[in-house]
Task: structure prediction
Amino acid sequence: MRIILVLVIYLMTTPLVGTADAEFQAGGYYKNFSTVFNSPLPDASMAGIVVNRLRLNLSHTPTDTLSFALAYDFTPRVQDPLLFSESPFAVGVASSRYRVVDFDARIYPSTDEATGSVGVYHNLDRAAVQFSTDFADFSIGRDAIAWGSARIINPTDIIAPYTYDQLDTEDRVGVDAVRVRIPVGVMGEVDTGYIFGNNFDFDKSAIFLRTQLNAAETDFSILLLEFQRDLLIGFDVARGIGGAGFWLETAYVFVEPFDDEPDTSDNYLRTSVGLDYSFGGETYAFIEYHFNSAGATKPENYLTNLEQSAYTRGGVYLLGRHYLAPGFTRQLTPLVSFSGQMLFNLSDPSTWVAPQVAYNIAEDIHLSVGGFVSIGKRPKNGESSEFQSEFGSYPNLFFSSFRVYF
Result:
């Protein structure tokens, strides 16, 4: 990765002979997320987090067939010292594990210093070279890799997934990979690549082959993904039905199938199916059902079930099995929109509700306020390890977001 980064920086800053039309672009954004939340445990006080994120995006296109991309995040945070090591939510997907080498994420304080209420983080999120031929498009370096047509929970998106409670989902976390995309027909594609794990360790890496085609006004894709010794077979279909959009995304994972004596009882299936519709251009609504066979059937087994490979390396974060996720967006005025999303655990039952109001102050300035409200039985006996429901065990959270793009 160091070699790739040096190459990208050198080529982005060095003029190339015969590239009079070379294009250099710089941009990015500043974001502020201010949040307060309360613990689900009794007698717990409110806590707060202020996250500032400055991102710089650089790109250089010396020819029509060659381009370079670099992106860097600088993130100061102010919060309770305990939250630098523990998330306020019980389950979450950490930063990408698919990087050969990486910076220490925290700049301040250093690892040998005591943690106070201020922390400064950074992230080299993109460092990639892309080039095209008549046969295929190639990329090498750190870039985003994501799949799936589902709106809320993508069973095939396990490389660097976002959880349902993620506040900032604009840029997917970058991973280190070599990737080849081969066009097939008008709208078809064969996409294959190797995603590197820490120090090129094969058992921490992933390799994939994905095909995509369009037939009968329907998009189909099939994914084969070997990751950290597990094998995922995924299928995705999306099409229009009478003015509505339909999707079905499913993935079956064989846990360590290449071992001498694989344990098939650990295999699991995840499926999302849904519909969306736009009403007159001002209101958009969707509903999605998700099945997660890796989840537990009883709340008291939620935490012990986290030892399964689905949670430790498969990108699964929901604790139960059956979920329903409706949502909508309503354009109140040309500059103001109101949106809402719910996620029901149908087995607990418990519910997660996320309303939000967004205001477009100017062309590149946005303000929003909202919250994550968790409804369900609170932990038993005031102990965070004794779940009685999934969402009832998470805090209520309220936030404001301010974003400026440049």
Observations:
- The helical segments are 2-13, 309-312.
